[in-house]
Amino acid sequence: MGHNRPVTTDVKEDAVLRDAEGLAHDAVVDEMGAQLVGSYLGFAMESERFGTHTFACDDPAYVGWQWAVSVSRVPRGKAATICEIVLLPGPESLVAPEWVPWSDRIRPGDLGVGDVLPTPADDARLVPGMSGSDEIDAIIDRDEPRGWTGWEAGLGRARVLSIAGRDQAADRWDDGEFGPTSEMAEAASKQCATCGFVVSVAGPLSRSFGVCSNQFAPADGRLVSLAYGCGAHSEVLEPAADDL
Fold first, then answer.
1. Which residues does 105 contact at the CB level (< 8 Å), separation at least 6?
2. 229, pLDDT greater than 90
3. Are 84 and 24 in contact (CB under 8 A)?
4. Sign of dihedral through CA atoms 91, 93, 98, 99?
5. Residue 231 belongs to some domain of the structure
6. How many domains does the chain have?
């Protein structure tokens, strides 16, 4: 069975094909069984000497679908011939949603053990990694102040994080569980930027993030925003004995 919807045209109606309703009905019943063929829905010309009769589909798995039986005749012929029988969706039928590429469907957390997630060659989060001195000299602006300017050495990596990729990651982490707007952070009196348990990270994100090393903190072993905070801050000290 095919799934191409017949095209209604302005071709003059062919009486021989129009009157072949019974022939079309018998053909679809022979092919699919009487229990799956419902009421007659109509006839439409598709092109010269070629038309389609439609019948309701009574299969409970295809509610609203239609059997389309194409008929034709040879020039000056007085008898119709069955061409094909296809099942097509009707105006009220349930059809599959529009296909969406996997790259647009995948979400964080979908990757499982053994899964492979290809990275597009034109991924905006990445840029080519540079390693040769000639490449370095070509892209470093001597007039800029010392520090990170958006370029990163590849160090054996074909691609490195782009500015867009860095900003996306920073926004995502700031909005996450260990960002400054989380419930824990808003209830804390001090931030991670002043906590002795924060381990510094290298690279362009070092000024905004670190790794928590306090085993009693909820973020132990996790990347945290330096604007995050919790009750296990290193400078939350025990009260003096005379304050008790």
1. none
2. yes
3. no
4. negative
5. no
6. 3
